[in-house]
Amino acid sequence: MLKIYHSVLYIIFLISTSNYKEANLRINVLNDIISSLSGDFETVFFSWVPSSFFVILTYLFSCICHRPIANIPTAIEFGNKGIKVINTLLTHEQNSYIIGTELSKCFIHYKFIILENLIYIHLSSGKLKLALEFIEQLVQLYEQHKENLPGGLSIIHTVLGLYASTLKIPDYAITHFQFALHNATYEDLKYIIEIYLSLAYLKTNQLNKAQAFVFSHSKKLYQHPNRILKAGIYLVEGLLDYHLNNLNQAKVKLKESLSITNGSLSHNQMAATALNGLGAVFLKQEPQLQQSSAILKSSLVLSHRSEDFFSKLASLELLSSEKLLKSIN
Fold first, then answer.
1. Is 50 helix (H, G, I), strand (E, B) or coil?
2. Nearest CA-CA partner of 255 in 273, 274, 241
3. Whether this model's pTM surpasses 0.85
C-alpha cells in the first residue's frame, strides 16, 4: 500500500521537474506493483481507493510522459486506454458506487487532462481533424462537469487558441488566449498562455504588446525553475528582437533559449521554434546564409523526432526561400 502511494507521489514529482525518462521507469514499477495484486482486479480496495484508480493514473502518467519525449504512438495508446477505462467506470451499472463520489470527480479530472494532452499531440503532429474531435469531447466534458473542473475554461480556450494558430488565423488565436488568460487559475498557466499570446502578437505585428509581456515578466521568468517558461521568455524576446531588426540581440536570446532546452527531447518543440527563429536571423544577414541553412536543417531533425508538423513546415518554408536557394545553388 505504502509502496503504491510512494510511487505515485514520486512520479508526480518527476513529471513536475520534467524528468520524463525516470518517470517512465517509475511508472513501470507502479504497474508491476498493481499487477501483483491478488483477487478480483476491479474490486480490490486499498482503504477507500479501488485498484482501477491507480491503473488510470498509470495511463495518465504514461500519456503525459511519453508525449514530451517524442514517443507519440505510445502516448496516444495510453491516453486512449485511460479514457476507455474511465468511461467504463463512470457508466457501467456495477460501478454505481463510484458515481457522484470524490472518486468520480477524480476520474473526470483525469479524463480532462488526458484529453488535453491528446489535443496537444494531434495539433503538433498536424492531425487537425482528430484534434478537433478531442476538443469537442473536452468542451462536452466541461459542460457536463464544470463544477468539478474550475480551471477547465482556461484550458479549453488555450487549446482553441493553439488550434487557431495552427490554422494561421492569429487574430482568433489572440481572442482565445486572452480569454484563457482571464480565466487562468494558477500563475504558471498564466505565464504559458502569455507566451502563446505574445507569439501570436508577433505574428500580427503587434510588437508593443509582446514587448509589454517581456518588460513585465522577463526578470521573474529568467529565474523561474520551470525550464519551459524560462526558455519561453528568451524565445519571445529573441523573436521580438528579430522583428525589431535587432539581429545580434536576437541571436543571443534565441541561443539562450536553446541552451536552456539543452537538447532535451522533452523540449524539442520549443527548441525547433528557436532554431527556426535563429535560422531566420542568419537568413536576414546576407553573409551568413550557409549558417542559416545548417540551423534550419537541425530544426527539421528536431521537428521530425518530436512529430512537430508545424515547426517542420516553418523550417521548410525558410529553407525554400528564394534568397537561401540562390546562396546554396
1. strand
2. 274
3. no
68 residue type, one letter: P
Q: Each residue of 196-216: pLDDT tens digit? A: 999 999 999 999 999 999 999
User: What is the H or E stretch that residue 45 is in?
Assistant: strand 45-46
C-alpha closest to that of 273 among 244, 242, 227, 232: 232
Longest dimension (CA), the chain: 71
Of the candidates 124, 166, 129, 75, which has an alpha carbon nearest to the alpha carbon of residue 303?
124
Selection from 91, 130, 121, 122 nearest residue 107 by Cα: 91
The single residue listed with the C-alpha cell 487574430 is: 171
Which residues does residue 46 pair with via DSSP β-bridges, in sequence order?
Answer: 49
| Cα 41 to Cα 11, 34, 149, distances in angstroms | 23, 9, 29
**DSSP H helical ranges for 2-151:** 2-16, 20-35, 51-66, 72-91, 102-124, 128-145
CA angle 272, 242, 329 (to 5 degrees): 70
Q: What Cα–Cα distance (Å) separates residue 221 from each residue in 195, 218, 254? A: 11, 5, 15
Nearest CA-CA partner of 237 in 223, 219, 218: 218
19: left (phi > 0), else alpha (psi -120 to 50), else beta? beta
Query: pLDDT tens digit string along 287-329?
Result: 677 777 788 778 777 676 666 666 777 777 777 775 665 655 4
CA distance 283 to 292: 6
User: How many of the other CB atoms lie within 10 Å of CB of 266?
Assistant: 20
| CA distance linking residue 292 with residue 281, whole number of Å | 8
The total number of residues written for the chain in this structure: 329
